Amino acid sequence: MAQEIKTSLSLKEAIEQRRAARSFRPDPIPTEIFQEILRLGVRSPSGFNLQPWRFVVVRESANKERLRECAFDQRQVTEAPVVLICCGDRQVNRSDYIESVIELGTKAGAMNDSYADYLRSAIPQLFDNQPCFESLEAWTNRHTMLAVAHLMIVAKSFGVDSCPMEGFVTAQVKEAFNIPEEVDVCCLLAMGYAAEPFKAYGGRFDIEQVCYGESFGNSFQL
Ligand SMILES: Cc1cc2nc3c(=O)[nH]c(=O)nc-3n(C[C@H](O)[C@H](O)[C@H](O)COP(=O)(O)O)c2cc1C
Q1: Is residue 32 within 6 Å of ligand 1 at its C-beta?
Q2: Is the pTM of this model over 0.70?
Q3: How many A from CA of 165 to the centre of ligand 1?
Q4: Terminus of the chain with fewer CB atoms < 10 Å: N or C?
Q5: What is the domain-level CATH number for residue 36?
Q6: 36 lies in a domain?
Q7: Crossing angle, helix 136-157 and helix 31-41, to 10 degrees?
């Protein structure tokens, strides 16, 4: 049996101690830890379990240099041992892909014929009629960013720092890394070990400022 890799921080500690790292040491992330971060990161939920996230794992120096050129010269792109180009695939409504989701669910013991048929009709309808999202890009981002959040928290629980980045030029990243037209680039995620103290914590609004009671705009009390 594979040996369990222990986290160094609890969930609460990982959430409270995670910060956006702007500088990284060159130390690599041990393979078994990186594998575990990816495995747990993609435990993230998705509509119909479609799992549209795709990650281009960039580790080679020359490729990180190219990526940095697409990312407003942000130093964390070349300093971090790994940068993920976090993408969302719009084409998960293809019938062959839906069948692969059904097969996965069947192997996991979570599928039956009527649910499989439901997926075969409901997923194309969701994408054709788009009642639940304004654009396909919103849909891919909704899912991929949730997986990115998982990745950042899981990484921190193993002592691995990260920096999510929206500072990049999409068209340049797509061209440089052969990302197809129908795949959206949602963010970059640099991962590794922070090199210097983080910037001062910027704080978060009180929950009363970001939560409303029952209807948008109504004050919320616990
Ligand atoms: C979607 C997203 C995009 C971001 N883009 C960048 C970026 O391009 N460059 C950067 O240095 N930080 C970026 N950040 C990091 C934020 O500046 C940082 O998360 C925020 O200031 C709060 O700090 P903290 O994460 O350390 O708590 C981004 C964060 C998110 C969630």
Answers
A1: no
A2: yes
A3: 6
A4: N
A5: 3.40.109.10
A6: yes
A7: 140
Q: Residue of the nearest CA to atom 18 in ligand 1?
A: 20
**End-to-end Cα spacing for the chain:** 46
Residue 124 included in any domain: no
Residue 29: pLDDT over 60 = yes
CA angle 155, 157, 162 (to 5 degrees): 35
Tell me the residue range of the domain where 56 lies. 11-93+133-197
| 143 in contact with ligand 1, CB cutoff 6 A | no
Task: Name the residue at shortest CA distance from atom 6 of ligand 1.
Answer: 165
Q: Which two tokens stand for residue 155?
A: 């990484």
- Would you say the CB of residue 131 lies under 6 angstroms from ligand 1? no
**22 C-alpha to center of ligand 1: Å?**
9
The predicted-structure confidence for 146-162, as pLDDT tens digits, reads as follows 999 999 999 999 999 99
Domain count, the chain: 1
pLDDT tens figures, 110-121: 999 999 999 999
Does residue 1 fall inside a structural domain?
Answer: no
CB 156 within 8 A of CB 64: no
